[in-house]
């Protein structure tokens, strides 16, 4: 911060307060002369400072004299006032966001086809987590291998937390994984968290050897598809997010067939 204006003071209030710091005490006329604030505006400036608790006023003599509170006290009071203001604004935003979401949802039109992509492990995870957080009805997770770029110990629990948050909001979550991925996940996620997840509804976990690749089916109409590096298949090249209902239906048909033959996991 460069001046008290960053904390809400007007230019005239800032100049008047600095003038009082230089003077120690002074009349309105003295402050106006020291600060360069027009005499017709100095009383407004001093009144603003007084209302904020930044000056003390001696009223038992004419003309009135003004004295500044210590600069540390003034900054603390302005910061606290700004904090209260920001908290009120945050509360207003929080209380109104549901209505805004509903209005935006009413204006949405469904695109039959749309795709976007992220390249690299970090951007791919960011895209995936965004789409998981956006799910409203269902999430299907199919994972048969783990990219060498992913730190399962770090990213596995984070993915699980995202899925748990979706479950708590009423989203159906179905996870179909290979035996090797199941072993990796079990080693990365603590037993209590894994047990809690399996006990959650609506959540179901199955193991299969009949699926291939890694993908996420969101709300039955959007597919997040991991793309392997063609020169190094054990490394992730990127993530494709395809919003194509026809393609999503084909993916879902393949998932349902593998899901039906998968082994149900009901305990860790």
UniProtKB/TrEMBL annotation:
InterPro entries: DUF7436, TrmB-like, Tscrpt_reg_TrmB_N, WH-like_DNA-bd_sf, WH_DNA-bd_sf. It comes from Halorubrum miltondacostae. Residues 4-70 form the Transcription regulator TrmB N-terminal domain. Residues 110-262 form the DUF7436 domain. Signal peptide: none annotated. It comes from the Archaea. This is Helix-turn-helix domain-containing protein. SUPFAM superfamilies: Phospholipase D/nuclease, Winged helix' DNA-binding domain.
